[in-house]
Amino acid sequence: MSLLRPTIAAAKLLLVLTVILGIGYPAVVLAIGRLAPGRADGSLISVQGKVVGSALLGQAVTDPRLFQGRPSASDASGATSGGSNLGPGDVRLAAAVSEREATLRAANPNATGPIPADALTASSSGLDPHISPAYAAWQLPRIAAATALPMADLETMVGEHTAYPALGFIGNATVNVTELNAALAARLDR
Amino acid sequence: MSPLLQTVLALATVGVIVAVLGYPLATWLHRVFTDERHWRVERAIYRIVGVDPNTEQRWSVYAISVVAFGVVSVVALWLLILVQGWLPWSFGRSQTWHGALNTAISFTTNTNWQSYAGEAGAGHTVQMLGLTVQNFVSAATGLAVAIALVRGLARAGADRVGNFWVDLTRGSVRVLLPIATVAALLLILGGVIQNLNAPSVVQTLTGGPQTIPGGPVASQEAIKMLGTNGGGFFNANSAHPFENPNAWTNLLEIVLVLLIPFALTRTYGLMVGDRRQGRLVAAVMAVLFAGAALLTTWSETAASTLATGSMEGKEERFGIAWSALFGTATTATSTGAVNSMHESYSPLGGGMLMLNMMLGEVSPGGVGTGLYGMLVLAIITVFIAGLMVGRTPELLGKTVGRKEITYAALASIIMPTLVLTGTAISLLLPSARAAMLADGPHGLSEMLYAFSSAGNNNGSAFAGLSADQPWLNLSLGAVMFLARFGIIVLTLALAGALASQLRRPVTAGTMPTHTPIFGVLLVGIVLLLAGLTFFPSLALGPLAEALS
């Protein structure tokens, strides 16, 4: 039995399917994307006309007046993505957690209650834009002190950027830190 | 709400959606693969390719066609990745020759193991012309082989099992392409990006730089999930907010991976003219799947040993339940995508995800591969049951004789042999051990997970392993290729042997294969085969870690 014929047929079919599935299909989806350009281009957010990031991507925050996001294995650089991949019994994970704990305690002297788990653990993507409502609330005393904004205003702002799971179980309750910080930064600039 | 209750509700939701969408899809699949007519675009394709779509092939010619298409695909994709520096939208991204070969085999075999990081290893051209195309055709290949095996059961006294070129074309054009297009649209509405932008750097709110990636992600993501492929556009895979931005896209992606594998069980019932057979297979798959999802969630909550819970390596928007369900869906279906880092799971949780793969990808398994894997196990089950009660083993009136059981047994032994041999050799090699992030039992799990992933054409990873080195690239590549095409050739041989048989009439002595008792037997055989093969290595890895 000749192997040449099926090999030539395979090569030709791969070529034809590459045109349909590798060029035609992505092109159609690109065209569809132009119907919702804001989303297809990355849900970018601007402050005073300048793009400052994406509503979907967490950022490294150094300003004590803004909310901290979750720890990131890549410092939220965006050039790469991923988690720490440290196993639950890994001493390096325990060390990282206690270091984060110490840093957070030092930066938030007025915070009350235990530090929420999402504040101490690196996300999967390194770009998680969300924190738990508990972690947002835990940071409020620091932010109120650093910004001199009334606590009630801050609580309202957090509430505006908190999303709850549909039907109570599709997803998790989250606060979008990037959007919240953009709103907070705009307020502080005024 | 407790994560366990959340998982129960999530399972129910996913179950209802997959059932509602899978029912008409199964009917459609049945029509696609029994249709006498060709679409105009298909006739044009056959003319260009130079094949006669109305001539069916013997199993051996069918198998040669599958392997030829696989080999041509590997070579073409390998070359494409190697020359990507000269192509547009490559942004200086590249892979080593052995990394590129690993990637080429990986995407061609529907494994989608990635020793490269998407952000550094694949530009937009390779993503579209290479990886997206293989996401389609590798899934369509699995679909074709499953249909050929079902034809073997459905036909009697026949020497042909179908035409691979026709099955591959129809699977791509009539099934995968339309669903993927709709899914991509929904993903864009959910926030998944779709553009050809180069990565751009912006000044963030506090002034630091951040790279905003671009790319044709939605088109890739849709077929990556639908085709149970799993290779991420980005290194973080479906954990990256640009691949999977919220709870709804996460739900959609879970539904996409489960849709075709479950729908195919009904297509099987329709094609053999006995819908109860399909329902039995679906029920067995569903029981194994739901059990795994619940056990993983439980491991991540009740059995978690950390004060910080199990949130290391998980995204806040998914939480524990939707991460565990996604992990179960992608390891039980040969998808291998992740929305959380499996290496950071609790010992038993990570062990469960590994076990999903070790079952041989049958709960419900990949597109096509799940059905043919489960039918091979059903043949082994009727054989063992036949031995126990002293009757001639048969499935749907086809005798499981010397030839049939030999093919089935060989098909089910290839994977464990490759996984255990590959793991053992790699653990002995200092160069491979140096790639491990962890040591002790967790390190063993890391290596075992990698070879289980390759040997089952899954592609999921304990991502701490720095697999981009010559030995691991080449050995994992060899394991992926041999497991994929070894099992396919044996499955097609089985199809040929079954098709040639005449159908024996049902008698009082026939053991029915649609009853709950057969379902229990089949579940037992699935668990027993994997348990006997892998218990020693699981004991040294995840179990030892959980107990220490």
UniProtKB/TrEMBL annotation, chain A:
Membrane topology of this protein: Single-pass membrane protein
Localization recorded for this chain is: Cell membrane
Q: Does the keyword Protein biosynthesis apply?
A: no
Which UniProt keyword terms apply here? ATP-binding, Cell membrane, Hydrolase, Ion transport, Membrane, Nucleotide-binding, Potassium, Potassium transport, Transmembrane, Transmembrane helix, Transport
**One GO term describing the cellular component:** plasma membrane
Q: Does the keyword Cell cycle apply?
A: no
Q: What does this protein do?
A: Part of the high-affinity ATP-driven potassium transport (or Kdp) system, which catalyzes the hydrolysis of ATP coupled with the electrogenic transport of potassium into the cytoplasm. This subunit acts as a catalytic chaperone that increases the ATP-binding affinity of the ATP-hydrolyzing subunit KdpB by the formation of a transient KdpB/KdpC/ATP ternary complex.
Subunit structure, interactors included: The system is composed of three essential subunits: KdpA, KdpB and KdpC.
Q: What is this protein called?
A: Potassium-transporting ATPase KdpC subunit
Give the species.
Answer: Phycicoccus elongatus Lp2
Automatic annotation (TrEMBL), chain B:
Query: InterPro entries from the entry?
Result: KdpA
Q: Which domain of life is it from?
A: Bacteria
Q: What is one GO cellular-component annotation here? A: plasma membrane
Task: Spell out the subcellular localization from the entry.
Answer: Cell membrane
Q: Name one Pfam family in it.
A: KdpA
Family the UniProt entry places it in: Belongs to the KdpA family.
Q: State the protein's name.
A: Potassium-transporting ATPase potassium-binding subunit
Organism of this sequence: Phycicoccus elongatus Lp2
Q: What is the lineage of its organism?
A: Bacteria, Bacillati, Actinomycetota, Actinomycetes, Micrococcales
